[in-house]
Amino acid sequence: MSAKHAILIDGTIGVGKSTMAHELSRRFDGAFLDGDDFKAEGVPWYCSSLSTCCRIRDAGISALSEKAILFIARPVRCLDWIYFKRHFQRQNIRVFSIGLQAGLANITHEGRGRSFSANELDRMAVMIREGYGARPYSDIHLRTDQHDIKDTAALASRKLRQLLAG
For residues 163 and 91, what is the distance between their CA atoms, to the nearest angstrom? Predict the structure, then answer.
């Protein structure tokens, strides 16, 4: 049986978590889960964090029955990291984190073709101040505002291959 891996892609709203996780899943022939697909509708994130993590965990374990590696795009708080690490490790799944960072002006630049609500903009600024994407438990830290997605994903792939080989 080959080793199984769950890779958490952390960062603020709009930093490129889903884009990066999707691109890495393609490069590694892995599974991809977008944390937004598992959140409870109509409930603030802080009221449903545990149930969201449980749904992601269950879907992740299921996805890893068919693939050797899973990429999860989701802002990762410390308690989330501990939760995923413990639950996946109980299933003999190695867990790593990639932290994505970018400046607020770069995330919201109109040339990116994405617009954000006032609430998202406020939350984004708070998340940057709180250190999303720069967590000490992340194994890899990358900036998504220095290169295009292909170059950033290539760098992430190289670093991740080194990490997985170790």
Answer: 20
